[in-house]
Amino acid sequence: QQQVKQSPQSLIVQKGGISIINCAYENTAFDYFPWYQQFPGKGPALLIAIRPDVSEKKEGRFTISFNKSAKQFSLHIMDSQPGDSATYFCAASKGTDKLIFGTGTRLQVFP
Amino acid sequence: NAGVTQTPKFRVLKTGQSMTLLCAQDMNHEYMYWYRQDPGMGLRLIHYSVGEGTTAKGEVPDGYNVSRLKKQNFLLGLESAAPSQTSVYFCASSTDPPSETEAFFGQGTRLTVV
């Protein structure tokens, strides 16, 4: 039972382009939606996170868009760079419960 | 600043063998977690702990046991390894519940069961 569905599985973007990764969730009780970034051979690290009381959060080139009614949220990477090439995981949690991760998106940014 | 350290980094086991993966954190975090990462499956929670002396089951606990005898250490045991347990294992810790703060991950243990 996949509580957080993530797409696409892989994404290839040219340098300077916009990378978009989407996630959908089922449990309306989720109240915290982080994105984690993982480089090859490393553990995931928190990139950016949002709560459902706002529709968008921006940190530098990274933006989370949140649509509560559609139960969807997405990560936008503006001006994508080769250094952004990594696997990205969305996640969700409710209250003090554990994080539920999506299946991951492997992003490759070519020069 | 070590953060979260996992030992060992690589291991090959024969079916039926046992082993223990060690996770150590030096951030005085209350919460610790063990995940496994498989292609196309994302990160799945095996077991977690909300404090010293406590453990709880996650999504995929079968075939694994854990112990949190000391606050800084979280051990993951495989009593009788199976090829289905071939995976990359990650330990993580956080100071507060995962809905309120960042989880810090170790660098992973790549386990192959043959």
Question: What would you say about this model in short?
Answer:
The complex is a heterodimer of chains A (111) and B (114). Helix content of chain A is 0%, strand content 53%.
Instruction: Provide the helix percentage of chain A.
Output: under 10%
Task: From the alpha carbons, calculate the radius of gyration of chain B and give it in angstroms.
Answer: 13 Å
Question: Which chains have the largest interface?
Answer: A-B, 25 and 24 residues
Order of helices and strands of chain B: EEEEEEEEEEE
Secondary-structure element string of chain A? EEEEEEEEEEE
Structural class assignment of chain A? mainly beta
Outline the structure in words.
The complex is a heterodimer of chains A (111) and B (114). Chain A is an all-beta fold. Helices cover 0% and strands 53% of the residues of chain A. In chain A, the strands form two sheets. In chain A, strands 2, 4, 5, 9, 10 and 11 form a six-stranded mixed β-sheet that branches. In chain A, a hairpin with a 4-residue loop joins strand 7 and strand 8 (72-77). With 114 residues, chain B is mainly beta. Chain B is built from no helices and eleven strands. In chain B, strands 2, 4, 5, 6, 9, 10 and 11 form a seven-stranded mixed β-sheet that branches. Chain B has a four-stranded antiparallel β-sheet with strand order 1-3-8-7, with no helix packed on it. The radius of gyration of chain B is 13 Å and the shape is globular. Classes of the chains: A mainly beta (111), B mainly beta (114).
